[in-house]
């Protein structure tokens, strides 16, 4: 029996309900899904506060009840677009179709002969990593924007206090300011992405 395996990459800082809705939508198309954690080497900054391991826990716990076999794999940054797809493939199980709405990511996968599908963004104005991180820093309601399993993981790893501390001590000269920051790469492709909840949402 033939199995269709998809691929979806993001930074998941943190994994939120927009990501979750997209995974549920992808699950209607594929038998298995590889979820790539982009910028896996980054953590403990306002832009990337959570480690790859913590993000793996968020995704694994949030998706475990789905009728979908998922593989969560860390993918470190590689800012060389021409070899980015090969880099992703070397870190991931084989996959048949990639999901992204980002023009550069689509182009890179298509040049590598990989089918790419897109999807509508899901409540982009609300489900953004920057917005959620800012709410955490400000003491606002962030819990309603993420699956309950993610709330549990953040409590377990003391992620709330960590983010507030690194945001408070961040040096604006580094360019890593929390408010209004733009999204870096879809897991290492050298492109800036807005923080929306589409299939290439980098958070």
Automatic annotation (TrEMBL):
Record domain Cytidyltransferase-like: where: 7-135
Reactions catalysed, as given in the entry: beta-nicotinamide D-ribonucleotide + ATP + H(+) = diphosphate + NAD(+)
InterPro entries per record: Cyt_trans-like, NMN_Atrans_arc, Rossmann-like_a/b/a_fold
Coiled-coil spans in chain: none
Top EC group: transferase
Subcellular location: Cytoplasm
Record-listed E.C. numbers: 2.7.7.1
Single GO biological process annotation from the record: NAD+ biosynthetic process
Keyword Ion transport: no
Pathway assignment: Cofactor biosynthesis; NAD(+) biosynthesis; NAD(+) from nicotinamide D-ribonucleotide: step 1/1
GO MF annotation list: ATP binding; nicotinamide-nucleotide adenylyltransferase activity
Compositionally skewed regions (Acidic residues) per UniProt: 168-184
Location of region: Disordered: 166-203
Keywords linked to the UniProt accession: ATP-binding, Cytoplasm, NAD, Nucleotide-binding, Nucleotidyltransferase, Pyridine nucleotide biosynthesis, Transferase
First and last residue of the signal peptide: none
Pfam families: CTP_transf_like (PF01467)
GO cellular component, one term: cytoplasm
HAMAP family: NMN_adenylyltr (MF_00243)
Family membership noted in the UniProt record: Belongs to the archaeal NMN adenylyltransferase family.
NCBIfam families according to UniProt: arch_NMN_Atrans, cyt_tran_rel, PRK01153.1
Protein's UniProt name: Nicotinamide-nucleotide adenylyltransferase
